């Protein structure tokens, strides 16, 4: 029996490659007879699948390694299991056989079992042998490189993918998918195509498209695409494509940033939806991308820098230069438009320049809205320049946008750093220019600028380097010397007003815009926003339910449909930089009020506008203000204009007023000091009711400047010491000292 057992063991061992008995956890596949499994360039999938099966059946092994230089020719799919890594040398190539005649949807690599997890593929080359398989149509599901379904924790990195008829990595119903540091050249469909997935990350890839897009999501959420370079050789589709279909899947956590996209046939970034779904389930954040010369298929109408339909989103700090047709557009895409309405794109801090016309008849617009009944723009502090068809089409211009040469470092070389007399990053060091870009310190006033190098002017730069360590520097290091006055201001000016005096006295009539405030951020004490959906002929009310400022609500009757609209109150520390001088009477509070985009809050679009505000009784009492003199003043046509103001209610702390206003701009609440003998005390209560407030918040909330949270105590919350309490502390301290002295004396006596 012993002899039979030993013979059995011997027969098993001779079928196991010798190296496996000596090395773990890697199994080597080679083409020169030095591997654990050896191939000959024909039907090499057989040996590679044997190696993958061995690793799957032996938990102490984790990796199948393809050694190079060698071309492994496969005529069937490789099957990979859980907890398995398939990797290889960069000169190891896995190539599809010629005349494969595989069925549609059969890939070169797939999962062995549904529900597989922890799959890693890295390091080698995949060659789709397009020229040897010309009997199929690219993009029709044939010969995908990798197709994984119902898998978790996938990593495909450091690969070279080239020359096939299908996708690079197609993942459907998968989670935690990482696609990084790959080089893809001329694939037959999408390089990455994620369908019904969650947790998708693609970064540091270099992609040259042939057909369709570089990176694509379909009904996929929690995804980030960043630091990718995507281009094409005048064919294919969009650089990045985001698609939502129907209501079953939310796509509201999508972020696309820090990518360089150029020379794509269709838009650099294409975002669209179809079917019926809540507009709150579709949201994308696109920022800090450089997009140039996109939309080269100028016979197609779906071209431009960024094109969107059926999504809400924030598009900020991007560079779009030399695109065909449109810079940023909301327009009809491939399929039927989504059923809903009220889709809003907030576009801020972008540079859009040199947009070109197309053969399809699009004149070359900076920002364009082709769906004005259902889709809307909010514009905030963009820079537009030299766009052939004009800066705006189907959207009202914003007064906060800049129309000027952005002063690129070297447009011909696509160096879009901004020229600066104080310092510009040239890729290796800081250099000095003889001119400074108007985009420096010109961004949205509440955008974060903390990552910009000093001096940074305490305001973000427009463009893709805004709020990054490579942002061009400001000429003056402006410090915050503004004075704080919580109980009103009588026109005393801090350094903000002196530094910005050239901007004073320029407030004009009509409505303000939430397109980004011109107010210096250091002068904003607190800011509150409210949003409502405005339709023609309806009464509109913006409630500021957080009670962060002196304004409680604004209301008016709408004469135009404007869609989802934001109203903003900025309560100021000092008078606005937009005004030249303080009003003649004592000032309780300065504030700015902006409603909608530029030009909205005029008599053409609204009527019967009213503002409800409040005044603290403590200020009235301490400043000896005549209650009947309290007035809301609006700055317009370079002067202060008192508005018809009426008392509407009071409580124990505040008096409440309403005022009729012809428009929205800088305001000041003032009062006249009474003669000493005529001062009348304000009674704590009365029978007048407080104006009814809607407690349902309709806006994103309050934005508070950092200065507001430091060492600030309101009059109602000041701490008051108990009389004589300091003396009690002193006596207790003295008794403690005497007691300790007695203990020391007793201890010394005992030692003696």
Automatic annotation (TrEMBL):
UniProt feature, compositional bias: Gly residues: 507-516
The organism of origin for this protein: Methanosarcina mazei (Methanosarcina frisia)
Ranges of compositional bias, category Low complexity: 477-490
Key words, A-Z: Repeat, Signal
Composition bias type Basic and acidic residues, residue spans: 704-717
Biased composition range(s): Polar residues: 687-697
PGF-CTERM archaeal protein-sorting signal domain: residues covered: 722-739
Region (Disordered) location: 448-524, 687-717
Domain Disaggregatase-related intervals: 251-443
Gene3D superfamilies on file: Single-stranded right-handed beta-helix, Pectin lyase-like
UniProt xrefs under InterPro entries: Disaggr-rel (IPR013687), PbH1 (IPR006626), Pectin_lyas_fold (IPR012334), Pectin_lyase_fold/virulence (IPR011050), PGF_CTERM (IPR026371), PGF_pre_PGF (IPR026453), SCF-Subunits/Alg-Epimerases (IPR051550)
Protein name per its UniProtKB record: Uncharacterized protein
């Amino acid at each position: 029996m012993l002899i039979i057992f030993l013979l059995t063991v011997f027969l098993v061992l001779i079928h196991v490659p010798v190296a496996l008995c000596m090395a773990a956890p890697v199994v080597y596949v080679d083409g020169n007879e030095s591997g654990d499994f050896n191939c000959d360039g024909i039907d090499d999938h057989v040996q590679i699948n044997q190696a993958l099966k061995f690793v799957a059946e032996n938990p102490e092994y984790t990796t199948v390694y393809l050694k190079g230089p060698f071309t492994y020719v496969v005529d069937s799919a490789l099957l990979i299991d859980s907890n398995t890594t398939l990797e290889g040398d960069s000169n190891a190539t896995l190539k599809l056989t010629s005349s494969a005649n595989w069925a549609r949807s059969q890939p070169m690599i797939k999962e062995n079992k549904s529900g597989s997890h922890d799959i890693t593929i890295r390091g080698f080359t995949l060659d789709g042998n397009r020229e040897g398989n010309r009997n199929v149509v690219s993009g029709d599901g044939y010969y995908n490189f990798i197709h994984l379904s119902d898998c978790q924790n996938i990593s495909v990195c450091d690969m070279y993918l080239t020359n096939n008829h299908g996708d690079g990595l197609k993942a459907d119903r998968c989670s935690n998918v990482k696609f990084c540091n790959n080089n893809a050249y001329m694939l037959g469909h999408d390089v990455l195509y994620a369908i019904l997935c969650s947790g998708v990350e693609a970064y540091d890839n270099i992609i040259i498209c042939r057909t369709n897009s570089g990176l694509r999501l379909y009904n996929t959420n929690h995804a980030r695409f960043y630091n990718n370079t995507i281009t094409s050789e005048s064919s294919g589709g969009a650089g990045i494509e985001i698609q939502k279909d129907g209501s079953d899947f939310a796509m509201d956590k999508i972020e696309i940033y820090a990518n360089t996209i150029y020379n794509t046939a269709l838009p650099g970034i294409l975002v669209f939806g179809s079917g019926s779904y809540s507009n709150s389930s579709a949201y994308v954040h696109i920022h800090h991308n450089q997009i140039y010369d996109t939309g080269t298929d100028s016979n197609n109408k779906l071209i431009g820098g960024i094109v969107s339909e059926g999504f809400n989103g924030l598009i900020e700090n991007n560079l779009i230069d030399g695109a065909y047709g449109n810079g940023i557009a909301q327009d009809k895409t491939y399929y039927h438009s989504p059923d809903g309405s009220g889709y809003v794109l907030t576009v801020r801090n972008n540079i859009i320049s040199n947009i070109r016309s197309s053969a399809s008849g699009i004149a070359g617009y900076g920002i364009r809205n082709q769906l004005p009944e259902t889709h809307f723009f909010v514009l905030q502090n963009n820079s537009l320049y030299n766009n052939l068809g004009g800066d705006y089409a189907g959207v009202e211009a914003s007064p906060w946008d800049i129309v000027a040469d952005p002063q690129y470092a070297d447009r011909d070389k696509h160096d879009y750093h901004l020229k600066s007399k104080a310092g510009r990053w040239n890729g290796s060091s800081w250099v000095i220019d003889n001119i400074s870009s108007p985009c420096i310190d010109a961004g949205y006033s509440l955008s974060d600028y903390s990552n910009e190098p000093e001096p940074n002017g305490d305001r973000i730069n427009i463009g893709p380097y805004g709020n990054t360590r490579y942002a061009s520097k400001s000429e003056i290091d402006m410090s915050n010397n503004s004075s704080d006055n919580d109980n009103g201001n009588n026109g005393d000016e801090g350094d903000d007003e002196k530094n910005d005096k050239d901007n004073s006295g320029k407030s004009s009539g009509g409505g303000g815009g939430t397109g980004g405030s011109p107010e210096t951020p250091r002068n904003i004490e607190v800011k509150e926003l409210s949003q409502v959906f405005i339709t023609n002929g309806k009464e509109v009310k913006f409630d500021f339910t957080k009670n962060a400022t002196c304004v409680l609500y604004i209301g008016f009757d709408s004469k135009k449909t404007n869609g989802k609209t934001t109203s903003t109150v900025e309560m100021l520390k000092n008078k606005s930089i937009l005004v030249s001088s303080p009003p003649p009477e004592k000032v309780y509070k300065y504030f700015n009020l902006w409603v909608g985009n530029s030009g909205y809050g005029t008599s053409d679009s609204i009527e019967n506008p009213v503002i409800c505000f409040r005044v603290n009784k403590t200020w009235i009492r301490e400043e000896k203000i005549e209650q009947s003199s309290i007035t809301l003043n609006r700055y317009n046509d370079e002067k202060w204009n008192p508005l018809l103001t009426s008392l509407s209610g009071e409580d124990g702390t505040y008096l409440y007023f309403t005022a009729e206003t012809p428009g929205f701009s800088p305001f000041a609440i003032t009062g006249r000091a009474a003669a000493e003998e005529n001062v009348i005390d304000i009674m704590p209560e009365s029978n007048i009711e407080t104006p009814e407030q809607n407690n349902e918040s309709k806006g994103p909330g309050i934005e508070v400047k950092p200065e507001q949270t430091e060492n600030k105590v309101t009059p109602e919350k000041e701490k008051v010491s108990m009389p004589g309490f300091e003396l009690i502390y002193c006596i207790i301290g003295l008794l403690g000292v005497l007691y300790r002295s007695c203990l020391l004396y007793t201890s010394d006596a005992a030692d003696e």
